[in-house]
Amino acid sequence: DGEVHMNELKNGNTEMFWNPTSEVRRQRLKRHIVLFEEQMDFESERLWQHVTSAINKGDQHKATQEKFVLEEEQRNAARERRESGTEWKPLLFRHDAATNEWRYKYEDLRPWDPLNDIAQFEKDGILQTMERHLSTRMSNHKATCINNQITRHKRSAKDCRHRKTSDQPSNHSQNTESSCSTPESVQELSDDDGKYLRFESLCAQCGKEMNHLKEIHSAVLSLQKAQQDIHR
């Protein structure tokens, strides 16, 4: 939170390296931490409280002593586990044999989805994302609708061909053609064979979900524009 300078020993020049200006402070994310009295014994802030206190007081000797105490306790605990044959099972981390590193079990590296993701938070050490799930529900429902329409279309086409072959060449042929025509309110989609099939418009629920997502997207864009205006 303070200024950091680089001092050139050869010529005595001093250069600004870091300056946390008021502008920098305004851009910081709000920090959320567990209250100290609610933390468990092995959580960082509580575990290292005496080391932190000594550092803040500028007492490097005391900070080194407190750090040694903590490390010695950890060594003793590891020695006792080895002697008793107790296996250490981390709750939140796993060992990656390929890189020989410890990785957080619940890391989430996917891009943030502004239309579906609401907030990200940590609970009991597990990183979680609150989602709307509208995109997933809509995609699944839309796929079901399309599959159902493909099935109906193929069945209708099969019945139509069957009626055409069974009818005698007569004045009824014109009526047969009209009875197998496709409704006007349609859209074209390609099936697995590359042929184009014509379907009825998506069901009401799909349309409603689509409109809802469009409204959310518009709201997000509006918020982003407002934030940019405020920043300027």
From TrEMBL:
SUPFAM superfamilies in UniProt: Oxysterol-binding protein-like
Pfam families recorded: Oxysterol_BP
Coiled coil region boundaries: none
Top-level taxon of origin: Eukaryota
Compositional bias ranges of the Basic residues kind: 151-164
Region feature (Disordered): 146-187
Any one GO MF annotation of this record: lipid binding
Biased composition (Polar residues): 167-187
Full protein name: OSBL5 protein
Phylogenetic placement of the source organism: Eukaryota, Metazoa, Chordata, Craniata, Vertebrata
Gene name as annotated: Osbpl5
